């Protein structure tokens, strides 16, 4: 069965939202809290360890009910059920979208169970030191070699859960930049290093070239037989991994129905399982599973990812906001934004709808941001006094992990204060000069989570996954392919040929020709 394909702009709700927007767009909404003592309690959702406050948004009850109507008219419920059923909703690649099956503890597929067991067994041997390298020493360093979805998730999680980390050092080699590879290899000892080559396709240029460079470096002091003790692979393409020289036992399979940018829950999370332990990895899957149940079962008005998505559509398609910022107030989450950039922008950066027609409305938002309070001293000036409307997600944790309450109180005070200052501005206060005037009326969501545990972190990521799915459904696009990354790869092949063969005639574009000539004429 296919996803419903409704042009959102043709729905009644969309037209009503357009009218409603005309009424609301100029409203300075600072007074809403004093006019409506129940607003803060009405526009919030409490769920498990999460408190989601969306009351500081440019919305009224009517906005929410129209947005909910839009969700109904585009048949969101049907789409959610289809996704979880395993239907091939990734139509342009003829695949199901089932990353949720990797954490469906109500009924784990046998292949998922097998892989989890294999991951547990392997990571415990690495952590416990039973797995020996070629010279008989235990492993001290784990290197994840992969790019995009085969890198960003594991890196984000190992950083986010650093507090739960064991003695193993973890490194990431993603970029084809040879300087970076050399720099990292210089600091590693082949005797005690495990390389996990992660590539769903096992055809990605960066990963394959880097893996070969690493293998050659490794073989400088060892023999081919030693490879099996130091190289494992994670891939849906087991044969290709074996062609590279990794034995079948050392390949951790990943199913075809898991998209790269949603794959951290699969064997792609092997580095996570090694450095924070399998139990913590499993707890993270469990947190995601809880979020899946919330998403599937809660009525839309009490459904965190649905409300997040609807608000985002409201700003993107009616206010014309082009971007949204994400600001986690936890240094542990400093890799969240790059992760979300791939998840959101690779998924929803599309301009053809599910009927194959060009869209005449905006789709995928630009996601950016960084951690607070650092961000306050970097780009917050623009959020407060710039000309652009940038809805912002603030993420914070009530309890610090290391017991430093004094710092945490200051950190949280800053988070809450920023959302208030953005919203209130100085409208109601007297300011000495126009330069010190803050317009306010700047929207934000606050996601306040009790504590940064593996379970809660898993839930957080799954909520964002579901948010982007809902947006894709509303925009009537296919969120799970990524054809837009292909053209550049093809052009790069010809460009590389021109560079390697010093053959400028292969190139057609005059600008590219000039640029290439600067390299080949050295
Ligand atoms: O950037 C394109 C992409 O295909 C991503 O979707 C994917 O996560 C990444 O490349 C890496 O792909 P692979 O895991 O197959 O090496």
From TrEMBL:
Its EC number is 5.3.1.9. Gene3D superfamilies: 1.10.1390.10, Glucose-6-phosphate isomerase like protein, domain 1. It is an enzyme of class 5 (isomerase). Keywords: Cytoplasm, Gluconeogenesis, Glycolysis, Isomerase. InterPro entries: G6P_Isomerase, G6P_Isomerase_C, Phosphoglucose_isomerase_CS, SIS_dom_sf, SIS_PGI_1, SIS_PGI_2. It is found in: Cytoplasm. The keyword Isomerase applies. GO terms for biological process: gluconeogenesis; glucose 6-phosphate metabolic process; glycolytic process. PROSITE patterns: P_GLUCOSE_ISOMERASE_1 (PS00765), P_GLUCOSE_ISOMERASE_2 (PS00174), P_GLUCOSE_ISOMERASE_3 (PS51463). It catalyses: alpha-D-glucose 6-phosphate = beta-D-fructose 6-phosphate. One of its GO terms (molecular function) is monosaccharide binding. Pathway: Carbohydrate degradation; glycolysis; D-glyceraldehyde 3-phosphate and glycerone phosphate from D-glucose: step 2/4; Carbohydrate biosynthesis; gluconeogenesis. Pfam families: PGI. NCBIfam families: PRK00179.1 (NF001211). Belongs to the GPI family. This is Glucose-6-phosphate isomerase. It comes from Aequorivita flava.
């Amino acid at each position: 069965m296919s996803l419903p394909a409704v042009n959102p702009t043709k729905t009644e709700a969309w037209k009503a939202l357009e009218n409603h927007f005309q009424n609301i767009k100029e409203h300075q909404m600072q007074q809403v809290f004093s006019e409506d003592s129940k607003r803060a309690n009405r526009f919030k959702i409490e769920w498990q360890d999460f408190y989601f406050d969306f009351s500081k948004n440019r919305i009224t009850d009517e906005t929410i009910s129209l947005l909910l109507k839009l969700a109904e008219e585009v048949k969101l419920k049907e789409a959610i059920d289809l996704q979880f059923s395993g239907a091939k909703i990734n139509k342009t690649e003829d695949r199901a979208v089932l990353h949720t099956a990797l954490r469906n503890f109500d009924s784990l597929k046998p292949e998922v169970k097998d892989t989890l067991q294999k991951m547990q067994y392997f990571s415990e041997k690495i952590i416990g030191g039973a797995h020996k390298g070629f010279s008989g020493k235990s492993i001290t360093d784990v290197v994840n070699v992969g790019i995009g979805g085969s890198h960003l998730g594991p890196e984000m999680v190992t950083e986010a859960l650093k507090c739960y980390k064991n003695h193993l050092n973890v490194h990431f080699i993603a970029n084809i930049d040879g300087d970076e590879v050399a720099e990292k290899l210089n600091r590693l000892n082949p005797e005690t290093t495990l390389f996990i080559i992660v590539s769903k396709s096992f055809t990605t240029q960066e990963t394959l070239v880097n893996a070969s460079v690493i293998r050659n470096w490794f073989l400088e002091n060892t023999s081919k037989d030693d490879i099996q003790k130091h190289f494992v692979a994670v891939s849906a393409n087991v044969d290709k991994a074996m062609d590279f020289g990794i034995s079948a036992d050392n390949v951790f399979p990943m199913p075809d129905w898991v998209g790269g940018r949603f794959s951290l829950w699969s064997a792609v999370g092997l580095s996570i399982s090694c450095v924070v332990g399998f139990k913590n990895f499993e707890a993270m899957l469990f947190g995601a599973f809880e979020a899946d149940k919330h998403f599937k079962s809660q009525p839309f008005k009490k459904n965190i990812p649905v409300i997040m998505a609807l608000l985002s559509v409201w700003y993107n398609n009616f206010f014309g906001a082009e971007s949204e910022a994400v600001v986690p107030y936890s240094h542990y989450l400093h890799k969240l934004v790059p992760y979300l950039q791939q998840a959101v922008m690779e998924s929803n950066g599309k301009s053809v709808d599910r009927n194959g027609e060009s869209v005449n409305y905006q789709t995928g938002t630009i996601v950016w941001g960084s951690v607070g309070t650092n961000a306050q001293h970097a780009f917050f000036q623009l959020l407060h006094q710039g000309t652009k409307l940038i809805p912002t997600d603030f993420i914070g944790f009530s309890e610090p992990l290391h017991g430093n309450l004094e710092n945490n109180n200051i950190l949280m005070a800053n988070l809450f204060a920023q959302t208030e200052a953005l919203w209130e501005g100085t409208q109601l206060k007297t300011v000495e000069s126009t330069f010190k005037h803050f317009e306010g009326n700047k929207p934000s969501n606050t996601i306040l989570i009790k504590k940064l545990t593996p379970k809660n972190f898993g839930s957080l990521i799954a909520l964002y996954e579901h948010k982007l799915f809902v947006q894709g459904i509303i925009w009537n696009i296919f969120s799970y392919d990524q054809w837009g990354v292909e053209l550049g790869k093809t052009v790069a092949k010809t460009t590389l040929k021109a560079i390697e063969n010093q053959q400028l005639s292969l190139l057609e574009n005059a600008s590219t020709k000039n640029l290439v000539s600067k390299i080949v004429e050295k």
